[in-house]
Amino acid sequence: MSAPAPHIPVLLDEVIHALAPAPGESHVDGTFGAGGYSRAILAAGAARVVGFDRDPQAITEGATLAAGDERLVLVPERFSRMRDALAERGVDAVNGVVLDIGVSSMQLDQAERGFSFQADGPLDMRMSGEGESAADFVNHADEGEIAEVLRDYGEEPKARRIARAIVAARPITRTSELAAAVRKAAGHHPGMKKDPATRAFQAVRIHVNDELGELEGGLDAAEQVLAPGGRLAVVTFHSLEDRIVKRFLKTRSGDVPAGSRHRPAASEGGPEPTFEAVARPVRAGEAEIAANPRARSATLRSARRTLAPAWTKRTEGPK
Ligand SMILES: C[S@@+](CC[C@H](N)C(=O)[O-])C[C@H]1O[C@@H](n2cnc3c(N)ncnc32)[C@H](O)[C@@H]1O
What we know:
Blueprint: H1 12-19, E1 26-29, H2 36-43, E2 48-52, H3 56-67, E3 72-75, H4 82-88, E4 94-100, H5 105-109, H6 134-140, H7 143-154, H8 159-168, H9 175-186, H10 196-208, H11 211-225, E5 226-236, H12 239-252, E6 275-276, E7 282-283, H13 286-291, E8 299-305
Parallel strand pairs: 1-2, 1-4, 2-3, 4-5
Antiparallel strand pairs: 5-8, 6-8, 7-8
The structure holds S-adenosylmethionine (SAM).
């Protein structure tokens, strides 16, 4: 089998502009992947990059890069655990945190990882290779649970009907089988604008990897590890994720009516804003989209950490 195409970093210049790495600084790349952002942060002169990835394969493949540059440290962990993982390595605070949410091209392109229905493979979809696989979920969850995942994470209008078809088609062990069951139930025909399997695969992947829970935990952890003046940059690929980042930055920067239930005013004992200089969302330009279609749905949001103490003290998910 040929090696998967390398991942092309999305919105790279814009991310580096937002992070503004300076000589002597430490940064966290929470989603190392193929190391596109880490390389650029180091090239900009940062003294250290701690790269996290929950996929052991990404860490193994990045080992050559890390072996050749002692400023890069790779950590096989979820980014929601960054505070503890940094503390274990003697790092209390960093000057930048970047998260590039979702899966890499390497993960998508390897049929045996089971993320894609473009090529048949075992129905897996686990980034870390641990825990419940996509096959475990579709074969054991009840119809209502499957419908909820399709609706909540895939924004699928025919969630109930598709969930019923999935249950009827069990056991499902291959990506092609899941795609076929979804298409049949959703009334897919060739030439249709959007393949309904796209939404179903996104939904099951988000569920299996608890991607939205990880994003929330990662934002809280970034708030805890960023030094005053430190920069947060987050790239997301669909509205569910972008909404979480937008809401987080809005609330944490105090951009909510004072005294609201989301943020009691400081005078009422509410916490002080932990982020400021929240930038407008940045989208990829036409040239980048032409060169890398994956950039089409990307949104970058960024902000600067204030001096105020973090709102959350502990954010760790289950180990
Ligand atoms: C979109 S890719 C990142 C690509 C990277 N920016 C680059 O330029 O090569 C996302 C990567 O983040 C990893 N990932 C996703 N969620 C994660 C999490 N919660 N914790 C750690 N790594 C995660 C995936 O395994 C994948 O390798």
